[in-house]
Amino acid sequence: MAKTVYTCFCTDVIHEGHLNIIREAQKLGDVVVGVLSDKAVIRYNRFFTIDFDERFAMVQSLEGVSRVIVQEDIHYDDVIAQLHPDYVIHGDNWKSGTLKAIRDNVERLLSEYGGQIVDVPYTYNENVKRIDARMKEKLAMPEYRRRRLRRLLELCPIVKTIEVHSGLTGLIAEKTVVEHNGEYDQYDAMWISSLCDSTAKGKPDIELVDMTSRFRTIDDVMEVTTKPIIFDGDTGGLTEHFVYNVRSLERMGVSAVIIEDKTGLKKNSLFGTEVKQTQDTIEHFCEKIRAGKKVQLTDDFMIIARIESLILEQGMEDALERAHAYVAAGADGIMIHSRKKDPAEILEFCDKFRADNKTTPIVVVPSSFNSVTEAELAAHGVNIVIYANQLTRSAFPAMQQTAEDILKYHRAQEVDSRLMPIKQIITLIDEL
Ligand code: SPV
Ligand code: MG
Predict the structure, then answer these.
(1) Are 133 and 47 in contact (CB under 8 A)?
(2) Less packed terminus of the chain by CB within 10 Å, N or C?
(3) Are 90 and 117 a contacting pair, CB within 8 Å?
(4) What separation in Å is there between the alpha carbon of 312 and the centre of ligand 1?
């Protein structure tokens, strides 16, 4: 009886590397190819430019492939249990780095019944490099990037979003992947925070940094990343200005803007009632949402309404009334904010809102209530979690300490052990 050889593809484009694997696999037996599901592709820190069905059909049309199946998970457990392949074949790039945990697991599963791993030399030449680069470029194009957030909302239990304010922080959001106890994780989206964008410029978070400058930050991030962007639009400003900004953000490929229901001189929410802040009327804020929704040109772009009632101590009822009113005015999502350490009021809001509204995405920013886990938030109906300022807050004390120590010791040797080697930092940056 012919042996079964299994390989899994996670690609939008078939290149000579894949064909080589099929050729090698054919030498060993019948070739079964798994196509990784959309959900699993995301865990892998990849994204697709063509739908699953197209990827499946693409692999089906390949010569030398006997059967194509879906691989639902990044790990091979289910496939190996069903198929009992004699061989699992893969490029040898999975022998090290983050992919190693997948290979180790496959090795363990195969050893239970005498199956074997076959590592073929990974094909990486100019042609393959060009195809990879093109796929990445495509993902960075406005139309692909913009629609990705809505797709993620369908696919992820919770969309994990991290603050970025520069090309470098963008690269951290783009490239950080963690393998922990065999589970893979990465960030799904990026948040251009008004607080951190202003702080990086040494300015207060009071809508002082103008839109031209904020757009420049978006552009810096976009230059080096592909993940979707959620933009902190503060109050949205005058409705007459907001509509122009909606058009600009949409054209740039931003996926969503979040505007908060405050008027006049906005201060950062984490000041709460310690400073004078004015909440907008429901009627006026709804008008702003409606005006924004009217001018946007695609179905991809989202306007998310942020409710400041809990921050300004206006109570749960006010927060809920506003949430329903903003959704009725056309908001594509709502963000509820709190500066309490205890997540109770946020979770109560989510439960009460979800009792009447099952679908509108809920966004939360757990800066103060940071004990809450993503799983708990998802269980209460939250769809997007934003880690809004942690990168800035971790970088600042580290930089300050280094500056102080160099002054203290009149040389840089004492700080060196804390610093990332230049060689390592430049590996973050892609060469063309
Ligand atoms: C920001 O990151 O700028 C925000 C979230 O608006 S918060 O600072 O918590 O208000
Ligand atoms: Mg802000």
Answers:
(1) no
(2) C
(3) yes
(4) 14
Residues ≥6 apart with Cβ < 8 Å to 278: 262, 263, 264
Would you state the pLDDT for residue 202? 97
205 annotated active-site:
yes
CA 182 – CA 106 distance, rounded (Å): 12
Q: Could you tell me the sign of the dihedral formed by the alpha carbons of 91, 92, 94, 100, in that order? A: positive
Containing 419, the helix (H) or strand (E) segment is none
Question: Which one from 12, 205, 300, 332 is the annotated catalytic residue?
Answer: 205
8 A C-beta contact, residue 269 and residue 311: yes
Q: Is the CB of residue 301 less than 8 Å from the CB of residue 274? A: no
The residue type of 72 is: E
Give the DSSP H/E element, type plus range, for residue 202: none
Burial classification of residue 245, based on how many CB atoms lie within 10 Å of its CB (0-12 exposed, 13-18 middle, 19 or more buried):
buried
Domains defined for the chain, CATH in brackets: 4-129 (3.40.50.620), 141-388 (3.20.20.60), 394-426 (no CATH)
- The reported pLDDT for the residue numbered 1 is 83
Give pLDDT tens digits for 207-266. Answer: 999 999 999 999 999 999 999 999 999 999 999 999 999 999 999 999 999 999 999 888
Using the atom order of ligand 1, give the atom closest to the CA of residue 234.
6
Per-residue pLDDT, averaged over 317-325, amounts to: 98
Nearest CA to 144 among 6, 26, 255?
A: 255
Q: Is 269 in the pocket of ligand 1 (CB under 6 A)?
A: yes
Assigned token pair, 60: 């089906």
**pLDDT tens-digit readout, 251-274:** 999 999 999 999 988 888 888 888
Q: Confidence band (pLDDT; 50, 70, 90) for 376?
A: very high
